[in-house]
Amino acid sequence: MSKDTKPAQKRIDQFFSGPGGRADDWRDLVEAAKAWARGGDRAKYDAALADLSVTEEFHGYPGLQLMGALREAAATGDASTSLALATRLTQALTTRSFRQHAGDWSVNDEGNGEAPDLAPQMFGQHTARRPYFETLIVTGLSASNWPALANEWRKLRRPVDAFVYEPVIVGSLEDAFCATILNPNLAAVVINEGFGLRSRHDAPVLRSMTATAGLNDESDASALRLAHIIKRVRPELDIYLMSNRDVEAMAGNPEANVARRIFYSIEDLLELHLSILEGVQDRYDTPFFDNLKKYAQRPIGTFHALPIARGKSVFKSDWIRDMGEFYGLNLFLAESSATTGGLDSLLEPTGNIKKAQDKAARALGADRVFFVTNGTSTSNKMAVQALLGPGDIAIVDRNCHKSHHYGMVLAGAQPLYVEAFPMTEYSMYGAVPLKTIKQALLNAKADGRLDRVKLLDLTNCTFDGHIYNTRRVMEECLAIKPDLIFLWDEAWFGFARFSPFLRRRTGMGAANEIEAWMHDPKSVAAYEKQQAELGKNPSDEVLLKTRLIPDPRQIRLRVYQTNSTHKSMSAIRQGSMLAVKDVEFHRVEQQFKEAVFTHASTSPNQQLIASLDVSRRQMELEGYGLVANAMEIALAIRQAVNNNPLISKYFRVLGADAMVPAQYRQSGFTDYLAAGVNWANTLKSLDDDEFCLDPTRMTLVCGTAGYDGTQFKGILASEYNIQINKTSRNSVLLQSNINNTRSDVAHLVRVLAEIAGEVDRGLAQGGANAKKTFEARVNSLMKDVPDLPNFSHFHPSFRGDAGAKTNEGDIRSGFYAAYDAAGCEHIRLNDPEIDRRLKAGPELVSANFVIPYPPGFPIMVPGQVITQETIDFMRKLDVKEIHGYDAKEGLKLVRTEALAKIGRPKPGAQPKLKAAS
Q1: Confidence at residue 903, expressed as pLDDT on a 0 to 100 scale
Q2: Domain Orn/Lys/Arg decarboxylases family 1 pyridoxal-P attachment site: where (predicted)?
Q3: In angstroms, rounded to a whole number, what is the distance separating the alpha carbons of residues 340 and 349?
Q4: Which residues of 544-667 form beta strands (DSSP E)?
Q5: How confident is the model at residue 14 (pLDDT cuts 50, 70, 90)?
Q6: For the packed helices 79-95 and 42-56, what is the interaxial angle rounded to 10 degrees?
């Protein structure tokens, strides 16, 4: 939440304000203390401290005693002590030095006050740094007993412990929920029985959320209920239940599987302490990386074909030693062609790569995960090849990444292209409406071809940030075809798993929710109720308007999700993961192995595999806080750009209302920074709306400043050292990620202000002609935009076994038609022959993929009939990079006489090795 809209009274349920908001609150406290120490208004300091004290209860540092010391100094009117202590605590939080230095836990500057009792055996015992985390303790004890309870926990620490943790104590379900949301340092939760339901603090938004969840009476505050709530919000946390009743009965309850372990509450706490450390160690372990480090330290004689291994050829060379000095010795010590000696084979892992993949599956909520070392392009092609065969039909977003189109070529499958909603003003597409997808399935059913539709292949989120309602899409499609397979290309969205708000919109997150729903007895009743309402033979019109409920007894849940781990986590470039949740995987497992053998290198990069392993560790242990920070930074950028009087004259970041048409925002949600927006109505949007906007992806309109996207991207890179990825005709895409800091935001805002100032001065000093030229340029970029071409259709030569209502085609035959040089021709884009043939024929048929960057998707595919709108779009394009098109040669087309010779696939032809239906 912005400072401008911050309520007068601090509320614990304002979740927009993450790590950066907490840092701002501490800086505000220091500024108020400085003003008070100079003789200013003490009331402002008291108010700031009162605000801060509420949410600081949910953090281990500064903790109860240091916060008590702050309040005591204020109560005695000691301004200098208040300023000194507030400054020191703020510095410790900013630098995170409190994680390693005992002095930061002391009340006084010398570090000899309360530290021995506050942090016994915490520091100084190890020469190596010990990672620090915090553990949430939910208790029924009164708050007066919490300091003593915290000390009991601290006494459990031992010098041999691999980690150090600090207890955070709360006494109610609502406070436990808020601590889980607000404290990214939590790694474990201990839930004792006897706690209350309501927080002591103001929480109206939280009350509405708990009421919706059916939490109304104190009796609802059960340990098991809280455990399920926390596990849903942050599944990576280890939960320990403490019961003073029949622990055997609780342990035998299937609903208690959310707990890592259950303890009898009067037993020794040491076992619980050791269990907490063991749970964190389980996430900290990186099987492949740990073994690679051990391998690098062994004296190895290498007689395999990798001269760079061990680095001798590098460091003994007068000519390439600089490479070794740049990268360091360990990189070369860790290089090997071996798959033994503590290492493993990526092609058929049975050792530490297999263990690392299993841990990644746990982290992503999948049944299994494959590591891929040449990008998500390969992950996508592997999935398509393994799941589809010749003659199979796949419903595919025409605007998806080229790897999906090439995957269809490799598999011999027939893509049935569906169109996303256009955003013509910004020369980009959104996502595919659910109604369009359902219509494609119903058309196939009407043609008697639904059995051949095997896969729905969609991009989530899109390059520009459009997120599907993955659960709704899968449920409604499964209501029409219960065994449909789903491939969600989440190359840009891997981080979303670690946000409780965005997780529901991921393929794996929705799959887990559907799986839980299938086992709920109420699901069958809901299905049968809808069937009774629909009647025996509902029309397509009715089915398209109805939010369909599938039959939970018929569903075969088959979900695949690809993530570019290098795009949103700390993996080296080309690191990717393919996550699987498929009840029929045993039927396609051999096909997956063949796809791995087809696409994966027999010499995968060891450092890349290690980075995949380590990136999983990081996200399981601190991903929640990193993603929260990335989202907060994105909101800060949006606010800084759109609220700055100078910058906003020429630039703006588009809100959800501009990126998602109103008919797909059924909740009425407009934007994250709109007045009155909080996480309650944001969650409603995430649950109900057909499309949402990823908050970390920001479309910055630059056309209103007279710059096209490519031009502005070049200016940012060459003059200001700011790198971005995607552009459109009149915008650029900014992305916040787990690597960004508030300093990055400041740099970007300063640069935009400088550029806006230059535009402003140029218009003021250039006179009427300059203004007229500027307005013409803006009009060209913002108004005179080309219409976006839809996919037309495949030529009849590639539709030998197509249905009457469906639009799929044999893309593989179209692709290989281009291999016949004599059967192809080239016509330049502006040749009048193009216009003549568009009017009089014969039809223009593309011989290859044509992919302009931007927008970055095929506007022509092999075998597609080229229409006037596609030619118009191509002629208006002013981008330099167009894959598959040589301006000197012109469009590559299949000759009319060659089309007549192309063999047509036999109806119903089946491959020898079929993907399971």
Answers
A1: 56
A2: 286-523, 558-736
A3: 11
A4: 558-563, 576-582, 652-653
A5: low
A6: 40
